[in-house]
Structures are given as C-alpha cells and as structure tokens.
Design goal:
There is one protein chain. By secondary structure, the chain is mostly beta strands. Helices cover 2% and strands 42% of the residues. It is built from one helix and 24 strands. Strands 8, 9, 10, 11 and 12 form a five-stranded antiparallel beta sheet that branches. The mean pLDDT is 94.
Amino acid sequence: MANKQGFAAYPPRVVHTEILGYVEEVNGIFHSRDIGRSFQLSGKIYLKFGDTFCNNSSGEFVGLTNNTVAIIEDKKQPLKSKYLEVEANGLIRPFICLTSEEQQLEEEKKGRVVLWAFGGVVEMKDGSGRLWYQKSIDHGNGNLEYIGTGVAKVIEKYVHGQQPVAQRMENLIFGPNEPRMGTFTAIADGDFIYLYGDRPDGKIILARVYHGRHEGRLGEKEAHYYWDGGDWVQDWKKAVVVIEGMQQGAIVRSKLFGEDKPFMFVGTSKWADSMVFMGASAKLEGPWKLEAVCEVDGIKEPKSQGKWMYCIYPQLWASDEKKAELMVTWSEQYPGGVIAAKLKLAGVADNDLVS
C-alpha cells in the first residue's frame, strides 16, 4: 500500500550521519577520483567518475583519465566498485572517448581535452541511456576553455567484462555562449526528458525535449523548449531561473516526502561550504526551496586542511526510504576520493520543528 505522507518529515531534517567510508575498487587499488554519480541500465548499477588518477597494483601513478565508469556488482556492498576495462599498465579506459581530432590536439600539446558529465544518465525505454557532457580544453594553470555541451548514447556491451559505451553524437548541441542544458541534472518524466543547466551567467534554467522514437531530436537545439515560469518556449533567454545557488546535485523520484512531493533534490552549493542541500517539489519546474541539512567532511582530505567537499549526490539504490535512510556520496579534493554516508532523516512522526 502506498504511503501518501511519505516516510520523512518535511522540511527535511538530518538527525544522524554515519560515515561509511570510501567507494573503493574491489581489487584494493585506490584511485583519486571525483563525481561518483550513479545510474542504472537494465537493472545494473554503475558509477561514473570525473578525473581519475590511475594507479597500478603497486600503487604507482600511471596516467590520468578524464572520465571513467565502474559497476557495482553487489548491491549489498555499495562501497565496492569495479572497473571492467583496464589496460595492462593499470590505465583505466575512459567512458566517453576522445575523437581522433581531439587526440591529435593533445598529441600536439595544445591542451588536454576534458569531457565531464555531472548530469547523470537517463535510461530510455529501449534500455539504452543518454548523458549530457561538457567539453572543455584544459590549457593548464587554471585556464579551462569551455567549448560546449554534447549528448551521448550509452549502450551496454553484452560481452562479459566490457563496460558500457558512450557514443557521442557528431556535433555539440550548445556552444560556449549558450546554456549547458543537461549538465547539471537530467530526469525523464512522461514523454519528456527534463534538462537542468547553467546559463552563461551561471544561473540554472530548465528545458525539456521529447524522447519519443525520433532519438535524433535529442541532439537538435530546436527541439528544446524552456520553462519561462508559465509555459514552454523555444527561446532560452526567456527562461526563468528554477534553482538558485547550487553547484552540483541530482533531482530524482523519491517516496521520502510523500505523493505531493515526488521529486527530490540533493546536492551542494556554489559556496564551497561542504553542506548537503535538500528539497522536494510537486513539479519538476518547482518551486524548489532548498535548505542545508548537514555538513560533511573528508577522511584523508578534511576541511581542517583547507579542503572542501563537492559533487554531493543521492544514491537511492543503496537507501532505505521506508526507514527514512538516505545514502549520499561526496567528493574530496585531490588526492582524495568519493566518500559515502548514510543520512538518517527525521520521520513523519518526529516532525516537531517549530514553524
């Protein structure tokens, strides 16, 4: 029977935080990496990471891969991930691969091409996925040149021991002076995929695109419609800001806060404050009232050393919503890793907050 009230009090309140440890490889090799956002394809759980500093079995650094994907083979061990494709020298195969032109650019020492996907993977009706990524060129010394936003189709290889493949569409959808739709977070609902992304000024707006049989529409700029506060329009410059002040996070369907608030946000702010922000809404358009619910810290790279935590994401697949328990992960700064924790939320019966 459905619980119309949900299982956690609203506004959300964290009553206890249990640090579970690092999300580590089953072979015991520690790689400094970030993001750690999960997605599902055909019932399998994967984690995708950003910059991954690859070490071999002796703990020696062998190279940097700018995005990787690992599988969670046992859901009962949510902190144990496994890379499926690793070269003999220990270098991990990228999830989103470079084109031959991008490889040539790197060979000519014109910069490092980075393809980062913070927005998650949306599972389609045919079992494949879609992700939206940011393409930039790292020229060193903090000089990161943003090129644009692209979309890739994620498919599983039905061969044992091979990781999913992210097949990039030929051209980027959005350029450097256009919004980065889908790179903040993305979620499917009904006939549409809803894409959240930064405008050039850093404010987060919302678009939606039909995800019917004509999958090419996902790669067409003209197919995107933007929320202007009352309707869906084709001009992104008319879009209203839907989420304020957040740097990373995810919007997911959740039963925690009841049928009236089926969409939940968990993330972190732009202010490097290491706070977990949460909120829920009846609609993907909002309104979104996000509040800090707890502060998190590092293990090897703590705040006491001048570090801050980022890339805070919910992991519903490893949570127990009926007990108002939510697993979240966050990233330490280099040379740290991805940390998992269980948040115990105040239950509906415990909601004694003074309004």
